[in-house]
Amino acid sequence: MKKIKGFLKYDIAVVLLLLLVWSGNAAAQAALPSKAILKQCDHARGNISGVTWDLRVEAKEGKKVRHQHLKVRSRSYDAIAETLTPARRRGQMLILLNGNMWFYKPGLSKPIPVSKRQKLLGLANNGDIASTNYAENYTILHREVESLDKEPCFVFSLEAKTSRASYKFIRYWVSIKRLVGIKAEFYTARGSKLLKSARMEYNNHIVSSTGVSHPFISRMVIHDELMSFNTTVLNFSTPLLKPIPASAFNLNLLNK
């Protein structure tokens, strides 16, 4: 498995969190702060400084199968996703900046504001391709412990703080041992009907400057809970740590 050397930033709360988990103390794990857990999960979904990956999306709707290939560059919670294929959409971009999202394509004089909840392809929303910020964008209503596929997990009930969040309400399973989100259920609102669910895998890794290997998302499979035969698969390539200049996120320079 290919690993990448680089620097991965953590705040004090996350460092303490990792030390508690590595200690293997069950009582300590049960007392882990919820927000720090979510921050750690966000790191495994792209919330680091300067990382690039390829994203291949496959959407199956009945007998119809569609594909899209994007290049994603992320810096902290900001991201740029540029479509490479299909050819008719080549050069189109989604820009996530300061919690807001814009759409741009060659020929436009300026980017157009769009919602992260808007469909990208199949069951994937615009917000699914960028780094998550569950720790800041959602209120933690409840946390419990249960097993998923025999793996002990924290299960969070999360409610969006603003309309800009990708989803209004989420149930989120986080591996206690690995501190990554491995399942999510998405609802239109608290107590409403389940719309779709997702399972996540983390076969990619980033190695910090201290030599510690950190998991990074490699695959997300989204299932339609209303029409069970529909699925969308997001495959994330091995991430490349690379500085991304601030100018890359300047909306006024996209048409230059």
Short description:
The protein has 256 residues and is mainly beta. The protein is 12% helix and 45% strand. The chain has four helices and 19 strands.
β-strand percent reads over 45%
Any idea what the CATH superfamily is called? Lipoprotein localisation LolA/LolB/LppX
Number of helices: 4
**Main beta sheet: strand number and arrangement?**
14 strands, antiparallel
Briefly, what CATH class? Mainly Beta
Sequence of secondary-structure elements: EHHHEEEEEEEEHEEEEEEEEEE
Number of domains: 1
**Low-pLDDT segments, ≥5 res:** 1-10
Give me the count of strands. 19
Description:
The chain is mainly beta and 256 residues long. It has one domain: outer membrane lipoprotein receptor (LolB), chain A (Clam). Helices cover 12% and strands 45% of the residues. It contains four helices and 19 strands. The strands form three sheets. Strands 2, 3, 4, 5, 6, 7, 10, 11, 12, 13, 14, 17, 18 and 19 form a 14-stranded antiparallel sheet that branches. A hairpin with a 2-residue loop joins strand 2 and strand 3. The longest helix has 12 residues.
Helix-strand layout with pairing:
Elements: E1 4-5, H1 12-23, H2 26-30, H3 34-43, E2 51-61, E3 64-75, E4 78-85, E5 93-97, E6 100-104, E7 112-114, E8 119-121, E9 124-125, H4 134-137, E10 138-148, E11 151-160, E12 169-175, E13 181-187, E14 194-201, E15 204-207, E16 213-216, E17 219-224, E18 231-236, E19 240-241
Parallel strand pairs: 1-15
Antiparallel strand pairs: 2-3, 2-18, 2-19, 3-4, 4-5, 5-6, 6-7, 8-9, 10-11, 11-12, 12-13, 13-14, 14-17, 15-16, 17-18
